[in-house]
Predict the structure.
Amino acid sequence: MPPAVVLVTGVSRWLGGALAAELAADPSIERVLGVDTVPPRPEVQRRLGRTEFVRADIRNPLIGKVIAAAGVDTVVHMNISSTPAGSGGRTSMKELNVIGTMQLLAACQRVPTVRRLVLKSTSAVYGASPRDPAVFTEAMQARQVPGGGFAKDSLDIEGYVRSFSRRRPEVDVAVLRFTNFIGPRIDSLLTGFLRLPVVPTALGYDARVQLLHEDDALAVLVQATTGGFAGTVNVGAAGTVLLSQAIRRLGRVALPLPSQAMGPLGRLTRQARITDYSPEQLRFLNFGRVVDTRVLREEFGYTPRYTTAEALADYGRTVVPVVDPALVGAVVEGAEDVVGRTAAAVGSLGAMTGRREPQPVGGGLRAVRDA
C-alpha cells in the first residue's frame, strides 16, 4: 500500500530536497511535508513542487504536533549531520543527530498513524581499521568500534531505531547504510576532498573506496519510502577503486604525507574552511571500506545503474582539471615543508612520551581489481 502522507527531514539539503521533489511528483501520494531548521535554497525550493515546507527543529518536542496534525504515515529521517563545521560544532552536531533522532522517534511512537520509518544511515557504522574483513555484510559489526564523531552518532541512532521497532513492532522500519555519495550535483565530504587540486594522503596506505552515484541514492530512497522492504540494507555500487586511482582519474595531484602529519593537517584545513574531514574520515581514507550488496539486489530489489568507476567518471566531468603544473608544484613543495616540520615536531613529542606510531599493514597489497 503506497504512503498517503510523507514527512522528510533534512529537506534543505540536496538529497533531502530531491527526495521530497520526487515524492511530490507522485500523484498517488496525497501530501509531502519537508522539515528543516533553515529554508531550502532557491534552486532547491523551485524543485520541491507541492511539497509543504515546515520550518521546525526535530530536537524540539513540537515535531510531534506536526506529525500528528498532518496524519503522517511515513517518516524519512535524513536530517543527520556528518560534519561539525556544518552544524555549529561537535556539541551541536551531536544534539542534532542523537537528541533530534530521539525526539523524532518519540513523536513517531506516540502518533498511531505512523506505519513506516526510513532511516538514511551510513556504512561508517562498520568503522575503518586494518583488521576489517574484505567485505562487510549487514550482519557484521565494526572490528574497531568508532569512538566519536559521525560514525558513533550513526551507531547510536541505529540503536534507538531498533528500540523504537521493538516498542512499535507494527511499524515497518528500513535502515539504509549508504556508502560515500558522489555525483555532479551532490555536495559530500568526499566530493569536497577530491576537488582539492593537491590531495593529501597517508604515506604507505592506499584505501579501497566504494561509491554510490547520487541518482542511485535517490532511487533507493524513493523505493524505500514507497515500497514494503523492512530491515537493514547496505547500499553501494558494484566494484571499487583505489584512492590513488580516484585521484589520478580526476586529474588531481596526490601528496603522500607521514601519517603523524595527517591529524594536524586535518585540523588546519577545518580551521581554514578548505575541507572538513575528521579523524574518523582520515581513518577511512587510510583503510577504506567495502560492503556486500547482495541484500540490496536480491531482497530490496534494486541494482545501481552506475558502478563505482562510472559514478566517479560522471563526477569527474564537473571537476576542473589542474592546468598549472608549476603552481601545483609550488603548493606541493610548500606543503611538504610545512608538514615536514609538523611531522618532526610530532615525532619528537612521540619520542619524549615513548609512544610509537603503528606501521601500515599490507601497504603493497591490491585486494580488488579496478572495476
Notes: The radius of gyration is 21 Å. The domain at 5-187+210-237+290-305 is CATH 3.40.50.720 (Rossmann fold). Residues 76 and 270 are 30 Å apart (CA to CA).
